[in-house]
Write a structure and sequence with these properties.
Layout (H helix, E strand, L loop, with lengths): L5 E7 L2 H10 L3 E3 L7 E7 L2 E7 H4 L17 E5 L3 H13 L3 E3 L2 H9 L2 E3 L1 E3 L5 E7 L5
Parallel strand pairs: 1-4, 5-9
Antiparallel strand pairs: 2-3, 3-4, 6-8, 7-9, 8-9
Length: about 140
């Protein structure tokens, strides 16, 4: 295991539906860290997504859980190696029941700096932005 990893913890309404969605993106479920309250989705060697039932997620904070179907609290950007990889991930998300948000103004702005992205929402409204950037190190 690497010394630095990112674990994103997301509240979900239906754990199995969310697991199925993320598996359809080509990401793997780590059964070792799954139970009735949580599922670990491995995006790569350094990034994991913890899907937590909304009820279980409430034990992580005294604050109320946001309704991500109505409001955005964060967006999760994922650097990929090509425009084709961005399009493939977005297509998989849409085929699995996700929805796409399109902003022509954002696309034009990104194009000016050599960037390409797509925005999709998972079934719970969590916003993902896979992107490719023509910049060394990204």
């Amino acid at each position: 295991m690497t010394s630095r990893m990112i674990f994103l913890n997301l509240p979900v309404a239906e754990l199995n539906r969310s697991k199925d969605f993320y598996e359809a993106l080509g990401w793997k479920v780590n059964q070792e860290f799954c139970d009735d309250n949580a599922a670990c989705i491995v995006i790569d060697d350094n990034i994991c997504l913890m899907l937590l039932t909304r009820q279980f997620f409430t034990t992580f904070s005294k604050r109320r859980v946001a309704d991500t179907a109505e409001k955005i609290g964060a967006s999760y950007s994922l650097a990929l190696t090509s425009v084709a990889e961005v399009d493939a991930l977005a297509a998989a998300a849409l085929a699995a029941g996700g929805t796409e948000e399109i902003s022509e103004a954002k696309r034009a702005q990104e194009e000016q700096v050599g960037m390409y992205s797509r925005t999709f929402l998972d079934p719970d409204g969590h916003q993902w932005e896979p992107f490719w950037m023509d910049y060394p190190g990204c």
